[in-house]
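=== Discrete structure encoding ===
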Amino acid sequence: MKRNWNISAAALGLAGCAALVLCLGANDDEKPPRYQTIFVPAPQVVNDAQGAVNVHGENFAREIQKNIQSMAARNWVVEQITPVIDGRYAWRTGEPQNASQRASAFGYGYGYSVTSGVAIVFREL
């Protein structure tokens, strides 16, 4: 019997995939699909003047393509690509610069997110 396997491995999670493989493949002649997940880190560039972190998009795209082509050569196809986001923060405090502001000080902080990479889920053909 032919089954339609339109279930996302990432949506099920690792334990869910294992349960799906064990349960659905038990009584069929057809083997359930095999999945493999890899993480591709994003090449990050830090702008020292402002402290901002940027992702080098062109190099990141090349790394993703290289990994997909490598897996395709071994009969794996992309099932899903999910960005992985990393939370960061920065803060600064300081003293006044002149005598008229002696009673005051300043401080600020902020949070931001950076794409740290992508998780790619492959399905074996």
